[in-house]
Amino acid sequence: MRPLSTTGNPMTEAEYLAFERDSTFKHEYRNGAVFAAHGANQRHNLIAGGTLSALYWQIRGRICQVYASLMRIKVQATGLYTYADFSVVCGEVQVEDEFDDTILNPTVIIEILSPSTETYDRGEKFQHYQKLESLQEYVLISQDSPRIERYMRQGHDSWMLAEAQGLDASIELTSIGCTLKLAEVYEQITFEDTAS
Q1: Are the C-beta atoms of 183 and 168 separated by less than 8 Å?
Q2: Within 10 Å of residue 120's Cβ, how many Cβ atoms?
Q3: Average of pLDDT values for 147-170?
Q4: By CB neighbour count within 10 A (0-12 exposed, 13-18 middle, 19+ buried), where does 88 fall?
Q5: What is the DSSP secondary-structure string of the chain?
Q6: What are the domain boundaries of the chain?
Q7: CA dihedral 71, 72, 76, 79 (to 10 degrees)
Q8: pLDDT at residue 6 above 80?
Q9: Long-range residue pairs from 6-14, CB within 8 A, at least 24 positions apart, any chain
Q10: Which CATH superfamily is domain 41-185 in?
Q11: Quick one: CA dihedral 66, 106, 134, 105, positive or negative?
Q12: Cα gap 23→106, rounded to integer Å
């Protein structure tokens, strides 16, 4: 991602928030620079719909909330403001200010991978997310094949990877007591080789 051209001076957090709240498009804020968020293709949106549906029915009536990509996340330790495809908060939601549009304590973050964001989602963005003390699980959903990866926090700096592959597979999101069945997540997606 390349930063938007500005006057060359870094934006403050307050300037970014004022800019973002007045914008019709989403932007990420990193180290004083503002980056336009990428749009999503049809496949991404269908996977998002399947994921939301699968989570909603399991979380309904509990003390957890699922937030889609319009809810901003702040990583207080690094100053990152960003948007995830989904975030789940269990317990009391902590927000940054009276605008009620930036959460501070996600329990689970889910990203749907795309060619333009995969390297960032797996690398630098995940490094930022790891600084969220509330975060227990980080989930990456592939668009190219029926495959979900889940990173579960084991300690302050330790994460354990589990993978589910194939439409008959499922993966547990232990911290929120949910199961993602790949057949539900990818319900509207056709793969050339569903055995992969």
Answers
A1: yes
A2: 16
A3: 95
A4: buried
A5: -PBPP-SSSPPPHHHHHHHHHT-SS-EEEETTEEEEPPP--HHHHHHHHHHHHHHHHHHTTSSEEEEETTSEEEETTTTEEEE-SEEEEESSPPBSSTT--EES--SEEEEE--TTTHHHHHTHHHHHHTT-TT--EEEEE-SSSSEEEEEEEEETTEEEEEEEESTT-EEEEGGGTEEEEHHHHTTT---S-TT-
A6: 1-37, 41-185
A7: 170
A8: no
A9: 6/33, 6/34, 13/79, 13/81
A10: tt1808, chain A (3.90.1570.10)
A11: negative
A12: 24
Nearest CA among 115, 171, 165 for reference residue 138 = 171
- For residues 194 and 26, the model is more confident at 26
pTM of the prediction?
Answer: 0.93
- The chain-wide mean pLDDT, for the chain, equals 93
Query: ∠116-120-122 over CA atoms, to 5°?
Result: 115
pLDDT of residue 194: 47
Q: Which amino acid is at 30?
A: R
